[in-house]
TrEMBL record:
Species this protein is from: Pogona vitticeps
Official protein name in the record: Transmembrane 4 L6 family member 19
Membrane-spanning ranges: 12-33, 53-74, 86-109, 173-206
Family as reported in the entry's similarity comment: Belongs to the L6 tetraspanin family.
GO CC terms, sorted: membrane
C-alpha cells in the first residue's frame, strides 16, 4: 500500500471540503443575501452555532494540511520520522472525524427543525404574526393515515408558511443539505486516512530509498 499516494488525494480533498463547509455555513447567516437578519439575530439557531465553520472546517484543516504536506513531501513534514508523521495524521484525522460528525448531527437537526422565520400563528382563534419555528409544530401533527407530517416532503409549504425572510425555507434546506453531504464525505475521508495512517506506521511510506 502506498500511503503517500493516498495522502496526496485525501489531503487536498479534505481541505477543499473544509472550505466548502465554511462557505455553506456563512451563507446560512445571510438568507436571501440580506445581512440585517443576522444583526437582529433572526437566524436559525443551528446556523448560528456555526457547525460548518468549526466542525466541518477548522477541525478538519489541521488534518488536511498535515496529510497534504506528507503526500507532497513539503519540507515542514521532514523533521520527524515516518511513523511519527503518520501517527500525527491519525490523531488529527480522528479530530477531523469528530468535528465533521458534530457538523453532520447539528446540520441534520437544523434541517429537521426548519428555519426560524416570521409566520402567522393562531392563538385562541386569533391570527398573529410572530418569529419562531413553525415547522416544529407541524412535525408533531399526524396525517389521516398515521404518518407524521414533515415539511421536507411537501415543497408547497416552502413558500406558504414563512413570510420573512424571503425563500428562507429553500435557503435552509439547500445549505443544510450541503453541510450534511460535505460532512458525510469528510467523515469517510477521515476514516480512510486513519486506516492509511495505521498502515503507514506499520509498513512505512512507499518511497524509493
Amino acid at each position: 500500500m502506498c500511503t503517500t499516494t493516498c495522502a496526496r488525494l485525501l489531503g487536498p480533498c479534505l481541505l477543499t471540503l473544509g472550505l466548502l463547509s465554511i462557505f455553506a455555513n456563512l451563507l446560512l447567516l445571510f438568507p436571501s443575501w440580506e445581512s440585517h437578519y443576522l444583526i437582529l439575530r433572526q437566524i436559525t439557531e443551528k446556523a448560528m452555532l456555526l457547525p460548518g465553520l468549526w466542525g466541518g472546517g477548522l477541525l478538519v484543516f489541521p488534518a488536511a494540511i498535515q496529510i497534504t504536506s506528507i503526500g507532497w513531501g513539503w519540507s515542514c513534514s521532514r523533521s520527524s520520522g515516518n511513523c511519527q508523521k503518520m501517527f500525527l495524521t491519525t490523531v488529527l484525522s480522528a479530530l477531523a472525524l469528530l468535528g465533521s460528525a458534530a457538523c453532520f448531527i447539528m446540520s441534520g437537526v437544523g434541517l429537521a427543525e426548519g428555519p426560524y422565520c416570521l409566520y402567522v400563528a393562531i392563538h385562541n382563534q386569533v391570527k398573529t404574526e410572530q418569529w419562531g419555528y413553525p415547522f416544529r409544530e407541524m412535525d408533531n401533527q399526524a396525517l389521516d393515515d398515521g404518518r407524521i407530517k414533515n415539511y421536507l416532503y411537501d415543497p408547497t409549504l416552502w413558500k406558504s408558511v414563512c413570510i420573512e425572510p424571503q425563500n428562507i425555507v429553500a435557503w435552509n434546506v439547500y445549505f443544510f443539505s450541503a453541510l450534511l453531504i460535505i460532512s458525510m464525505v469528510e467523515m469517510v475521508l477521515s476514516v480512510l486516512q486513519i486506516i492509511n495512517g495505521f498502515f503507514g506506521c506499520i509498513c512505512g511510506f512507499c518511497e524509493k530509498k
